[in-house]
Structure formats: C-alpha cells, structure tokens
Amino acid sequence: CVTLDVQAACWDTTVTQELLKEGFHRDLLVQVELGEDAGGCSVAAQIHLPPGIYVDPYELATLQQHNLTKAVLSPDVTDVEAPEYMSRAALLLLFLAPDRRCSRCFCGSVPVHARYHRPAWGTQEALVVLESPQVLLCCCHGHLSAECWKPAEVDAPCSSDSTSPCQWHSTKHRPAHEELMLRVPVGLREHNSLVCALTLLTTGLCSGLILAAACKYGHFP
Q: Which Gene Ontology cellular component annotation is one that this UniProt entry carries (predicted)?
C-alpha cells in the first residue's frame, strides 16, 4: 500500500527532444513538463552526446555571452574537426528556462553538429542515436519530495554562471520517445576506386595547368 501511495504521489515528468533544421548542423530542442511545481528550482537536462554528434564549445561560449543558451559541456575541449570514429562521447548539462504558457514546463535548445563517418557498404547514411536526457532539479529551499526525487551523482554548478557545485536531484521520467535518430549521409565504399581515380586525374590536370601557366607567364631569372 505504501508503494502504491508513493507512485500515486509522484506524477510523471515528460521529456520531449527534437532535432530542428536539416543537414549536419541542427538545433537540439528539449522540452520538459514536470510532475510537480518546481518554483524557485533550477531545471536542467543531462544529455549524453555520442561520438557521432558534438557541441562546438566556441559557439556555445558565444551564445552564452549573448544569453541565448546556458549549458555546461564536459569535457570542455572538443576537436570539432575529428571524424566520428576518432571522437569520444561527451556530456552536456543544458539549463532549461521556464515556459510562460505552462507553470510546470521548461525548455532549452543548443546547436549540435554531426560528425563525418566512415564510408559504408550498401548504404548512404549512418544512424546516430541520441538517448532521452535525464531531468535534474537543483532546489535551494529543499522542498522536493524525497519519495519522488533522489540525489543524483552530478558534479555540476547550479547554473552556467556559477562555478561551485550544487546538489542535483533526478526522477524517473516518461520520454515521448526513448531515443532520437539522426541520419548522417556517408560515402559508399563501392565508389572508392572511382573517387581515387577522379581525384588523382583532377590533381594531375590542375597541377599541369598551373605549371603551364607558370612557364608561359612567369618571369624566371
């Protein structure tokens, strides 16, 4: 009976994430509807970024300077030129802002970028799986229900403007979708020989044109 009472008191928190725009450069939108009022609390989404997708730390710093988004990236050093097979997963703590249309709703967005993948056999795309984020709350007043919210092992500040870590709490949530799929175009390995031949031919032709122009119009001592 106690278990049933606790489950009835803990209303589901709903999480929705969506990738906006097209191509390699997207905006990740996260929307959360809490099961209870969280007035005065900081709400964040902890997002696990697989190696196939990344957040540009320089772009993130610029957006935060203009107060367009608030987030903490770990690790904070990212090789934005590295392909997927030479990259590591990352962790993003995205601070969410209250939604004026709903007292228990919060949302936030951040630009994300797909990495180049290895060419594949028989398919022109690779799938990057983005799992549903974890919802975190940080409340100074300590009014969270102990049955519904548990301390989370998150070493992160209360906000992007703070450096001192805070005690975050998490709860089980109901994702609109368990995971989000990003389809990334890749080259066909069947075309390797053709691509190498065309690249070599183009390089040789351009080099010959440059050498011919240098001999014709160049001034040599």
A: endoplasmic reticulum membrane
User: Within this chain, do residues 194 and 140 fall inside the same structural domain, yes or no?
Assistant: no
160 SS3 class: coil
- Report the chain's C-alpha Rg in angstroms: 24
Structural domain contains residue 183: yes
Whole-angstrom distance, CA of residue 67 vs CA of residue 61: 10
Q: Which amino acid is at 187?
A: G
29 within 8 A of 21, measured Cβ to Cβ: no
CA separation for the pair 21, 77 (Å, rounded): 25
Q: What is the pLDDT of residues 155-183, one digit of tens each?
A: 777 766 666 777 888 876 666 667 788 88
Distance between CA 104 and CA 175 in Å, rounded? 16
Rounded Cα gap, residues 15 and 33, in angstroms: 7
How much is the pTM? 0.78
Q: Count other C-beta atoms under 10 Å from residue 40's C-beta.
A: 9
d(CA 33, CA 167): 21
Structural domain count, the chain:
2
What is the C-alpha to C-alpha distance for residues 34 and 67, in angstroms, rounded to an integer?
24
